[in-house]
Predict the structure.
Amino acid sequence: MFRLAVRNIFRNRLRTALTLAAIMCGVAAVILSGGFVEDVFVQLRESTIHSRLGHAQVMRQGYREFGQREPTRYMIESAEPVLKVARSLPQIREVMTRVNFSGLANNGRADLPIIGEGVEPGKEGRLGSAIDFIAGRNLTDGDAFGVVVGEGVAAALKLKPGNPLNLAVSTPDGALNTLEFTVTGIFRSFSKEYDDRAVRISQAAAQELLYTAAVHSVIIALTDTAHTDAVVTELRARLGQQGFEVKPWYELADFYNKTVALYKRQFGALQFIILMMLVLSVTSTINMVIYERTGEFGTLLALGMKRRRIFRLVLLENALLGIVGAALGVLAGLALALGISAMGLDMPPPPGSSVGYTASIRIVPWVLAVAAATGAMSAVLASVLPGRRAARLGIVEALRHNI
């Protein structure tokens, strides 16, 4: 039966070519759309990590739930135990601490509510590879009273590098403290909402501003994002009993999680649409083939071939077409993905961001497998009804087609 199915495939080369072309286009479309979506996920993930979140954060238990109302109550008085544990793990590339605060920024003419971070400039500069400076430069370890501001803050207060900026905050004791800083740079991150309110100063200046030596969080940067879950599990096991909680980046990135959920639903819907289009396209071709071969099926039935073998023959022929078409479609999809990636796709800023990016088509093994399965499955599904109709033909009526 296999030899007969192979011979039947090549009997009508035009019909075979049309069927293979439809399957190839569908498979290539799945590869390109899946690779594009995967690239969006990867770029969004790395931008989220390397703008400000890091791969993981360690903080006092309860800080995420109650720290917004009482930030000073959940500070880490001594970060050395956390730093010691983190530095002992080989997957960790960088460990840094941060002090968070909120207050008012004043340029001498207007006030603006801001959210601030006291950072270790050198380490933050290495982590924040996704932050672009549209004017000036980033903080350095020598900038004792330098400040970098988000693009929105600079626009609201009309700031330029070199301008003075006063920051006023409430200390843990309830007193009001203010210090004057010099703007060294204006940055743009992946999140426009963050840029509209964010300022960054050195950690020493933030601690002086707040009259405290404590920090709010320990930020961890890894050698590879793939190590995130393993490192978080290890840190939780070693720090959980000491009153600390460890959060991976994806638990802190609400925008990323919502975007991924949306794109996954869209990709699933697109894949279903492609499958239906393939089934309809291939079904049309198979119906024509079955009609043209009605006399042949009548002859086979008259010679004693059982009806279920006719049905199996039709399924086998189209399964072979589906496998060949899927293989050719994978090759075509790979070639197109490599070509498009070499040129790059300029994409506009996603919602909530002011930064565009260059997209590519990533070659993902599971997407290739799904695409190949979609192509093969479409041919098999499309042949079920025509195969049943061929198996139920009346012998006499079918033989009349030979006349």
